[in-house]
User: Which sequence fits this backbone?
């Protein structure tokens, strides 16, 4: 959802709907979300739990976004 919102924001600002996020940007988002929500926050507060399955879901979501953004 974050990548989609970001991409739509870029489209709105640039007025160019042919712009797509590249592999590096999508992978960076996956790594950032994995680090913050599965490593950093669980160390800061007991309300958060780190889970490798969530990291896998972030990765699958990034892959799905990459594929779906190719559809015009």
Assistant:
């Amino acid at each position: 959802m974050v990548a989609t919102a970001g991409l739509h924001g870029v489209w709105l600002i640039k007025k160019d709907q042919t712009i797509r996020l590249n592999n590096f940007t999508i992978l960076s988002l996956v790594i950032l979300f994995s680090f913050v929500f599965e490593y950093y926050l669980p160390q800061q507060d007991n309300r958060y739990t780190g889970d490798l399955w969530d990291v896998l879901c972030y990765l699958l979501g990034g892959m799905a976004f990459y594929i779906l953004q190719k559809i015009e």
User: Anything to note?
Assistant: Residues 23-44 form the longest helix (22 residues). Residues 20-69 form one domain.
